[in-house]
Write a structure and sequence with these properties.
The protein is mainly alpha-helical. It is built from 20 helices and six strands. The protein has a three-stranded mixed β-sheet with strand order 1-5-4, covered by helices on one side. It has a three-stranded antiparallel β-sheet with strand order 3-2-6. Helix 12 packs across helix 16.
């Protein structure tokens, strides 16, 4: 064993002396080695680990599919020109996008990217228009009352985004405008690595690749990365960072980033990729291996825990409903809600729940409303009642609003579901 261990170093060194030129040659264009073409390959080699890659290349009986291009040239850096030509013909028309040849508005790009987090393009469209009508500039958003911002955001969910949006707008106004670098954008509230890269590339022409779910999917298929997410996320990001390495992509960083988004949204879709129409099909390792539709693979999702709560809909003779504000911190922070219990891991008995009722009256059990949050599922029992009038104490602990006008209050969707369930019970 000592002898075997002692010879490993020279063997690995010799192996690298063969592998590195092979990588360089495999990524050549027109017979000429290309440094930029080799970038994604070297990224994968580094992500895999030198010892593991060399051992696999030289000692595995069959060369792994996702590394076969190192020796056989079966996969090269995809040509940006073919993607951009496709994009010029098929680009999506989206309300926040500038037209061909026009300069992108950083405010529009940033606002759309925040809205699109955890939300589909189709769902965002109407909200984007309404939000922009109310807050047409970053200055208008910064000067707005936070409750007005939360109200305009209601229905999109993930309300911490709205609070961060407001805080970010105030910081941008303080700075005199949006920073035009990834590093500068990362200093703003609510902006992470992806959003910073997206705004920098699209609005300011910084040659970076924003890595969202679309780009992860494209990259996993181009290089046939079979390791499941989330473990493969760093590897995919390293490979994706080299997709814009050639001169054509560097000339059009804004278009290249959006072309990747459009490719993932339209052709390289999650379930049924239209490989025959893809501008990169000729260099796609997953397509060649017949596994494109299976990638990216994902580790089994953990079962979401369940929490339980109860909320109370009570309406007086004047048609007013009692509401209150949630705490400033935590889930749905500062949003409007029906009075209710805390949310906990054990179900509430009727006797326990009624201790938290805002008034003493005869309550009707309206059944359960289910709502799915990112990290848990909430099951809420809704209780409803009618009374002649509210006591001063009840009003002091909340506020009254017309029951027929709750939609105008832009409540969280959970509360709208609870109110709808309670109103249906009271109407029968």
């Amino acid at each position: 064993m000592a002898r075997r261990g002692g010879s490993a170093g020279p063997v690995l060194l010799a192996a690298w002396l063969v592998v590195l030129p092979a990588v360089w040659a495999a990524c050549s264009r027109d017979g000429r080695p290309s440094l930029w073409g080799a970038v994604p390959v070297f990224a994968l080699l580094l992500a895999e680990g030198a010892e593991r890659v060399v051992a696999r290349v030289f000692f595995a009986p069959v060369l792994p599919e996702r590394l076969s291009f190192v020796i056989t040239s079966s996969v090269k850096t995809p040509p940006a020109r073919s993607l951009l030509d496709w994009y010029d013909r098929h680009r999506r028309v989206l309300p926040w996008r500038s037209g061909p040849g026009q300069t992108a508005d950083p405010y529009a790009v940033w606002l759309s990217e925040i809205m699109l987090q955890q939300t589909t393009v189709k769902a965002v469209g109407p909200y984007y228009h309404r939000f922009l009508e109310k807050f047409p500039t970053v200055q208008a958003l910064a000067a707005a009352d936070r409750d007005d911002v939360l109200s305009a955001w209601a229905g999109l969910g993930y309300y911490s985004r709205a609070r961060n949006l407001h805080a970010c707008a105030q910081k941008v106004v303080e700075l005199g405008g949006f920073p035009n670098t990834v590093e500068g954008l990362l200093t703003l509230p609510g902006i992470g690595a992806y959003t910073a890269a997206a705004v920098a590339a699209i609005a300011f022409g910084v040659p970076v690749v924003p890595v969202d779910g679309n780009v992860e999917r494209i990259t996993s298929r181009l290089f046939a990365i079979e390791e499941p997410l989330p473990a493969s996320r760093k590897k995919l990001a390293a490979l994706a960072s080299g997709l814009n390495a050639d001169k054509e992509a560097q000339k059009r960083p804004s278009d290249f980033a959006q072309a990747l988004f459009d490719l993932g949204a339209s052709l390289c879709s999650p379930r049924s990729p239209a490989c025959g129409l893809c501008p990169w099909v000729a260099v796609c390792a997953a397509h060649k291996a017949g596994i494109a539709a299976t990638l990216p693979r994902r580790a089994p999702k953990a079962v979401k825990p369940v929490r339980y709560g109860a909320h109370f809909l009570v309406i007086d003779a004047a048609g007013q409903v009692l509401l209150r504000k949630r705490p400033e911190k935590g889930l749905l922070a500062a949003m409007t809600e029906l009075p209710g219990t805390p949310w906990r891991t054990e179900p509430w008995s009727t006797e326990e729940a009624l201790i938290h009722a805002p008034v003493q009256t005869e309550w009707q059990d309206c059944g359960m409303v289910k709502h799915v949050f990112t990290h848990f599922t909430l099951q809420v029992t809704v209780y409803a009642a009618r009374i002649s009038r509210f006591s001063n104490q009840a009003v002091q602990e909340g506020f009254l609003a017309p029951a027929t006008g709750v939609d105008a209050l832009s409540l969280p969707s959970l509360m709208l579901k609870c109110i709808k369930r309670g109103m249906k019970t009271l109407a029968t």
